[in-house]
Structures are given as structure tokens and as C-alpha cells.
Amino acid sequence: MTDTVVDSSLQDAPEERRRAAISPSRAKDFLQCPLLFRFRAIDRLPEPPSQAAVKGSLVHNVLERLFDLPAAGRTEDAAHGLLDPQWETLQEERPDVAEMFTGPEELTAWLAEARGLLTQYFRMENPSRLEPAEREARVETELSSGILLRGFVDRMDVAPNGAVRVVDYKTGKSPHPSYQDDALFQMRFYALMLWRLHGTVPARLQLVYLGNGRTLTHDPVEEELVAFERDLEGLWQRMAGVARAEKFAPRPSRLCAWCSFQRYCPTFGGEPPELPADGVAHLLTVQAV
Ligand code: SF4
């Protein structure tokens, strides 16, 4: 899934607020820092857009639209031609993205980087030979424990023999081998959801790193997904316990350097806003009782 500008699992319109669900990104937030999780999932504090995240969204949008074209038309030139219109659309959806740049030169360089990532994509895959079964698919499923999971899958390919491949584009570089398990967290999350939804374990999970042209693949098995489900249930119990106690402690790390909420964080001398009255109650709807 894309590092989206907005986490779609939590962008509910107030008038029709959906039941809360665990998404891979919010689960990872909690594991990184419970206070960060609170700011995003419960307070839903606004965050300024970052050039890296918006570039990721832009490239994902182009790759999604590319498959609207007939197979023979899915060329590198066509992908580059989609870049400007998709950038226009992004700015209409979120006007503050234009403020990320100090001037036209910086914007031009940033767009050139996005174009370079698209060029890299064509070195890794030939989209005219693919017919994805799904693109940017919203997947949602409730585990037998009553816990609701939700996520967006970049692409799903189905082979003639029915084997499913789940593909996720990353605009960054592939991780060091010792961090690969962390990278596969999101993919196992999708594999578990798809298995529980359709009764078949996806044959392959594939992460496509456009930042350095590497691909990370993993073929999951049932035992691993059973263990992953157990881990997720344990994680939810920890989240729910912290939420009921209203004690979202900061967990400082080197990742604080990228946190948008330092001014609300006690680690940096800030003070969190008052916890929204209905925020915890809504979070607890993750698990049906
Ligand atoms: S600054 Fe660090 S400790 Fe504070 S909320 Fe952000 S990630 Fe957590």
C-alpha cells in the first residue's frame, strides 16, 4: 500500500463515521509510539504534507491510472504523460501540497524525481503484459475474535490457475535484510485479510521498491498467517488496554525526528491536547463484542 497523504482507513466523514478498524499503518504507529498512534488515530491531528509522502501518492496514482489504458498503450511515455494531470488532481484534493516547495525550481526537481521513479518502474515490470484483478482495492475483514481489519491493496494479480499475487509499490529503497520482516508486516496483514475473506492464502507477496529497483517477494503459508493473526490479536489487546486506561505514553526514538507532533509531545516539552470525549469509544469499536 502507498504511503498515502491521508490514511484512508481513518478519513471518515464525521456524518458517517465508519466503525474503527486496525490498518497496517496505524498498527505500526502503535508499535513505534503509543502517543503518536493517539495523535493520528484518536485526536486525528492534522499533519503537514511531506514531499516524500506526496511523491509516493503521486507515483501510485499514475501507476493506478496507467492500467486504465489498453495494454499496448501502457508505455513509459504514457506514464510520464499522466504525471502532470495527476499532480493537478492531487493539488485540487489537497491544496496545501503546493506549499511544500520553496519555489518553482524545487517543484521541477521534485517532479523530475517522480518521473525517474516511473522510469524505474518500467525497468522492473512490463505493464502491457499484466491485467491486474484489483487496483487500490479497499479490503476489510473481521477476524473470528471480532477484530476488524482494513487496508488498501495497491494491486492484485490473479494467474490463470487462480494463484493470487499481492503487489505493493514503494517509492523508497528496499530495506536491509535485517529489517525485511518489518517490511513484510504490511504484506502479511493483507495476506491474512485476503485469506480470511476468500479462504485461499495468496501465493505471493511482492514489494516493488522503485527507489533502488529491487523487489522483495515472500510466499506465505497458513501456519505463518495463523501466528500473525495471534500477534495482531495480542497487539489489539495492548492497544485497547492503553486506550481504556487513557495512557498513551510517548516512546522516544530516532524516528521522533520525522514526527509532526513534537510540539504536543512531553518528550519535547509539549503538552497533548485534551483527549476527545468520543475518541476512545470509537477506537474500541475495532472489536465487536
Ligand atoms: S515526538 Fe517521538 S515520542 Fe513524541 S509522539 Fe512523536 S514519535 Fe512519539
Describe what you observe in this structure.
Helices cover 42% and strands 13% of the residues. Helix 6 packs across helix 7. The protein is globular. It starts with 23 loop residues before the first helix and ends in a 6-residue tail after the last helix. The structure holds iron/sulfur cluster. The site of iron/sulfur cluster has 14 residues, from helix 2. The site of iron/sulfur cluster (SF4) has 14 residues, from helix 2.
Strand percent estimate = 5-15%
The molecules bound to the chains, other than polymers, are:
iron/sulfur cluster
Q: What composes the largest sheet?
A: 5 strands, mixed
Morphology call: globular
Point out poorly predicted stretches: 1-14
What is the strand arrangement across the widest sheet?
Answer: 1-2-3-4-5
> How many beta-strand segments?
5
Give the % helix: 40-55%
| Rg | 20 Å
Instruction: Give the termini distance in whole angstroms.
Output: 29 Å
Give the number of helices.
8
- What assembly state would you assign to the polypeptide chains in this entry? single chain
What is the chain-wise order of helices and strands?
Answer: HHHHHEEEHEEHH
Main structural class = alpha+beta
